[in-house]
Amino acid sequence: MLMNAVCQFCGAPVQARSRFCPTCGKPLKAVQQRDEATTETSPAVEAVLPVHQRIHVNDESLDLRKLINVVESAMRWWQVQLTNGSAATRAQAAAAIEDLSQILHSLAQQLSLGRETVRITRRLPVLRNFPVGCPICGHGNREGAKFCQVCGSALSGSLQRGQGVGAPMPLRLKVAARTDRGRVRQNNQDAVYTGTIQLPNKRTAYLCLVADGMGGAAAGEHASRIAADVSQTEVRRVLKQQLPSSDEAWKSLLSDAAVQANKRVYDDARTNSDHKGMGTTLTIALIIDDRLYLASVGDSRAYLINASGVTNDGAVSAQLTTDHSLVARLVDIGQITPEQARVHPQKNMLYRSIGTDPSVEIDTFAEQLEPGYTLLLCSDGLVNHVEDHEIADIVLKQPDPELACEQLINLANQRGGRDNISIVIVRVERDT
């Protein structure tokens, strides 16, 4: 039996089975060595809190009140760093404390709504870095990006179509969508939607979305359905009145639609006791001509895939959205490394979702589409079991988007199917 020990970094007492120090937040060496000798198949069973209690984790959820103590431990560690003599360290600590404060606010709001637990997924967060500055608007972009995600300007030196340099490229889209309950869940709390919107001058907009609901009984299913219905209805309503005139206006259209969905889910959770504490992820894609616009909250993902590469460095796949999970933020702000996140007992728990707060911040993106590109939206039921390179490989080898959806769902189910699985695939071809 393992005995109690002390942290090798700060000397604080820790429990023998703890993976991370509750005082300084750093990974414990003995645990690292033990994990390297074993293959991870499930979340950690428990972790130690500053109040000398244990967090008990099952395959579905974690106690929200105890999670708040974990975040507070991280804040205390960064507060110590504020006294460091390095200006760079103090700046990083101040930014980390601000981010963690926002996470604490979100968790407290969820408690006020009656939510006692948060969901757990097994997907490792990706370290997000946006080092390439746009020469037009100055916004950061991922390494190798061809077009600025904010203003749409070309980053590679080539002129961008559709921005006063000629007509948009005529494209034809093949769209497929599938949702599956998986092999473990009793009901399907995911929602998917695909549809077209007729615009003036015989133009057609393509609208797709994925929502992954959270909540007891049928509450999660209800939340995802509300978000899907409200957001697509709002987009259609606005486009009947006027067309946006810029990338920023198109992104605002999707952001406003997601905000309306948040309001409806939040209000329903407050007025209906059966739906108390419910929430959902939401990722919306709107394609008009050769431009893709995205809005995202939560951890349902959007990928762009192309055999010839979607970035200048030749990568065939790029995740366009950001995962709004606690451990992903800790990676981003330098609290832990991606390798440490792989064994973190609280990895990938959402801190931002639709319906859990009266207001929500929406991530929006704009991308240029070209023939040969494939857009893929999915809930985490897919990426829990299928890695990014495997997703890209199946999509590139299977030209039929319907069959590609089926193969991806079958693979996720073969590997356990522990969650609902939803996929939308949009294949982009030249319209000759």
Describe the structure.
With 432 residues, the protein is an alpha+beta fold. The protein folds into 2 domains: 5-112, no CATH class; 132-430, PPM-type phosphatase domain (Phosphatase 2c, domain 1), CATH 3.60.40. 32% of the residues lie in helices and 22% in strands. It is built from 10 helices and 19 strands. The strands form 6 sheets. Strands 10, 11, 12, 13, 14 and 17 form a 6-stranded antiparallel β-sheet that branches. It has a 5-stranded antiparallel β-sheet with strand order 9-19-18-15-16. Helix 4 (219-241) packs antiparallel against helix 5 (247-271). The longest helix is centred in the N-terminal third of the chain and has 26 residues, at 87-112. The termini are far apart.
Percent range of helical residues = 25-40%
Strand residues, percent = 15-25%
- What's the number of helices? 10
- Ends distance: 70 Å
H-E order: EEHEEEHHEEEEEEHHEEEEEHHEEHHHE
Mean pLDDT over the residues: 79
Can you name the CATH architecture of the largest domain? 4-Layer Sandwich
User: Which value, in Å, is the CA radius of gyration?
Assistant: 22 Å
Tell how many strands the DSSP assignment holds. Answer: 19
**Biggest sheet layout:** 6 strands, antiparallel
